[in-house]
């Protein structure tokens, strides 16, 4: 099928919210991880969202180059081509981008999309994230309002973060403190600044104890019931049931019940990265340990080309990651729900 257009992405999100399920949002940093994501979604019969961070985009351009705009465009070009070979559809998204990174990532990408749309084309990305969790909420929302106008004009959707996700992702660290929990007042202030769709569609990552990475049980306290409280109280104030399209960040390592509760309270997109990184790398480690004398030229021997050929262990890595994508789609309820 391929990559969705603007109208199809809106339909995807509407269908998830109405149907009570969420899409896996999969961070990819190479052709191999992108292919693994597509294969997993295909096996699950699920549409999904492929996304790239600033660090991932740097890597896409080549680790000696680190041109994140070039890398992001390379990701888009590759995804648009290879996604045609699958029976599901995917959206393309830029993940976490903080204030210091805006000028080298989201701003130039939006400008390129504005030029494309002006010439009768589509935006390069279906959605962009502005991560203002490190700045005061008023400043966060002021910048979000500016971006919302621009994303609306190119047929894209904005994602924002209200509150702060703890842990570390791509060198950006969030403290594990009270800011992990978005308040009703924070959410109300968000609506006052951005509206409820009339100024452009946005998704909100409201934090409820989320932390990037995986921690031992008991170290992180998720409170998905907070999402219900915010949806109920803000919805009552503005006369709109479940007013927010919610995103679940830091989803790796969450229990099935925590995921199910978050989806029930309005999550339509869940980011999965750490679990998928491990699922990709674990089969490689297994292959290397099992084929030690094949992947290394030990004691003057020549090794085994079939063992150290990157395609040999690459296929295993992709299969491992794909299986984890299928698991995620089943947990989120998107499996078997691709309409294309």
Account of the protein in words:
It is a single chain. By secondary structure, the chain is of the alpha/beta class. It has a single domain (6-332), classed as Aldolase class I (TIM Barrel, Alpha-Beta Barrel). Helix content is 48%, strand content 14%. It contains 13 helices and eleven strands. Strands 1, 2, 3, 4, 5, 6, 9, 10 and 11 form a nine-stranded parallel beta sheet that branches. A two-stranded antiparallel ribbon has the order 7-8. β10, α9 and β11 form a beta-alpha-beta unit. α2 crosses α13, α3 (54-61) packs across α4 (68-82) and α6 packs across α7 (184-194). It is globular and about 75 Å long. The model is unreliable at 172-177 (pLDDT under 50). It is an enzyme of class 4 (lyase). The active site is at residue 95. Keywords: Glycolysis, Lyase, Metal-binding, Zinc. InterPro entries: Aldolase_TIM, FBA_II, Fruct_bisP_bact. Pathway: Carbohydrate degradation; glycolysis; D-glyceraldehyde 3-phosphate and glycerone phosphate from D-glucose: step 4/4.
